[in-house]
Specification:
By secondary structure, the protein is α/β, with parallel strands linked by helices. The protein folds into two domains: 111 residues, Rossmann fold, CATH 3.40.50; 119 residues, Elongation Factor Tu (Ef-tu), domain 3 (Beta Barrel), CATH 2.40.30.30. 27% of the residues lie in helices and 30% in strands. The protein has eight helices and 13 strands. The strands form three sheets. The chain has a six-stranded antiparallel barrel. It has a five-stranded parallel β-sheet with strand order 3-2-1-4-5, with helices on both faces. Helix 1 links the parallel strand 1 and strand 2. The protein starts with 8 loop residues before the first strand and ends with a helix.
Length: 271
């Protein structure tokens, strides 16, 4: 028997970030139906399933956006033939041109519809768009507070300038795509390499002092790493400073060493 034939309750949404608000919906359902739009995300694509302990099914927006509200509900009932309960947020919209809302869902679906009220943390409404705004501002405290976990990105190691290892500090350069990245600057981070979390600092932005290229790079503190050819995860914990241009590599290196010291003190205080 297919897994979908066993499922009696689902929750539906984009679930970008799997934040604290999403978790309230997910707790009340057997499975998660993700509406995937293939654009910049807090947690893009299949990576949502990294934060779920329940079955996760993807409906690609491009394939369903022309369905009417009724056609969408009919599609759900076909895909999940034992479906009895649908859990959605208070602002849930569906169907072509967002013609459907929670009231219409209750009319169209023969089973139970559970509508979860607005979730607030520190009197802030928990929404992906709100988290995205704070991320663009570099406010990692609120980002992580609303997510209920540290914001993280995954990427493949790519070849960098080689300048860091020669003149500054060695860094791992990453190819990051799909993610909404935090504001340009330097951050206290943890970097996961081969299932081990290592203390680090990370830079996001234009390398104004050197080649004027955009980069995402991480320096693992007090660790000597060989050549890496793997996927790496970086968790962003706290902002250190904004990006800026330095008058010389010597001045930049002095600042990087200050950044590392700041990060070491942070980790010492939070162990």
């Amino acid at each position: 028997m297919k897994l979908t034939n066993k499922i009696k309750s689902i929750t539906i949404g984009s679930f970008d970030g799997i934040h604290l608000g999403h978790q309230v919906l997910i707790e009340q359902a057997q499975a998660v139906v993700v509406i995937e739009r293939n654009s910049g995300y807090l947690t893009p694509g299949y990576r949502r399933s990294n934060y779920l302990k329940k079955p996760c099914f993807f409906y690609h927006f491009e394939k369903i956006y022309q369905l009417s509200a009724k056609e969408f509900v009919d599609r759900l009932c076909i895909d999940f033939p034992k479906l009895e309960t649908i859990v959605v947020g208070y602002d849930f919209e569906f169907g072509h041109k967002k013609e459907g809302n929670t009231a219409l869902l209750k009319e169209l679906f023969y089973g139970e519809v559970i509508v979860v009220d607005e979730i607030k943390i520190d009197n802030i409404s928990v929404h992906s768009r709100t988290i995205n705004r704070y991320l663009k501002e570099g406010n990692l405290y609120l980002v992580n507070r609303l997510l209920g976990r540290p914001f993280s990105v995954e990427g493949d190691v790519i070849l960098g300038q080689g300048l860091g290892k020669r003149e500054l500090v060695p860094t791992i350069n990453l190819n990051i795509y799909d993610y909404q990245l935090p504001k340009n600057g330097v951050y206290i981070t943890r970097t996961k390499i081969a299932d081990e979390w290592l203390e680090s600092i990370s830079f996001v932005g234009i390398r104004q002092t050197t080649d004027e290229a955009f980069a995402v790079e991480t320096h693992v503190i007090d660790n000597v790493l060989g050549e890496l050819k793997c996927n790496i995860t970086v968790e962003f914990l706290e902002s250190i400073r904004e990006n800026r241009k330095f008058n010389s590599l010597k001045e930049l290196k002095t600042q990087i060493n200050l950044d590392i010291t700041y990060a070491k003190n942070y980790f010492k205080d939070n162990r």
